[in-house]
Predict the 3D structure of the following.
Amino acid sequence: MSPTTRAQWQLHVCVLLWGFTAILGKLITLSALPLVWWRMLIVVVSLLLVPRVWRGLRALPPRRIAAYAGIGAIVSLHWLTFYAAVKLANASVGASCIALAPAFLSVIEPAIARRRFDPGELLLGLLVIPGVVQVAGGVPAGMRIGVAVGVLSAVFCALFGALNKRMAGHGDPLTVTCIELGAGTLLLTALNLVWHRGAGFVLPGPHDALLLLTLALACTLLPFALALKVLRHLSAFNVQLATNLEPVYAIVLAVILLGEQHQLDGWFYLGVAISLGAVFTHPLLKRATLRKPDAEVLAAAESKAIE
């Protein structure tokens, strides 16, 4: 097997593992805040056991650490709203909303990167709107607040993706991940103290603990490690197309494992198809100008919007 073929298989394993995050979020009985807090804490503690991370920390100036910490705060808000959407609706809704992140990125990233807007990117954002309307119309009324929270999660995802791109190449990816998730853990700790006076962080039972370990290690650290190898052999175009499949994997898994097709109607799946159609069209239109993806963009979330 050639290195490129192996990298393609590894990439799809990464995307499949990311697709499981919504399923695990639905299966874990904890609410969104403690769920995300435990997930981040487990990943950070694991990374602090890696000597390379400590070497990277010593090499970074304080201002850069502060910048990554700020991005990490946005990452924590993205994960918090993502799992809140899963809890308020279901895994399929949460995953389909995250598919909107590339459309938001097409608007947010030019402003952050201080470059001209690309009309094609703006068109992508407009094409996704009918899909969002169909998704919202295809879920029960009680789940629509989950759709709204999921859209907000996609905005946070696009925001930290754009900021990570601007900071790309200034730090070791494992170290960057540790800083970002460490800062996110601290932010969620503060939110818990304000909202729940510390009562929100309960010790998970054996069932939830096992699922949390799976979420943090098998669906976060493992795919990140694989992604670092993938980026050495595949173009940004190939990575973009494969990572756009993440919502598809998540929805298929939700149907197989959770039976969520009984909660949603055909309008929902039509909306998902419209949104994904726009997202998949975007890299096809920009194939000639795509550059190598940045490892930092792959470090901290399920949705890997890569330009």
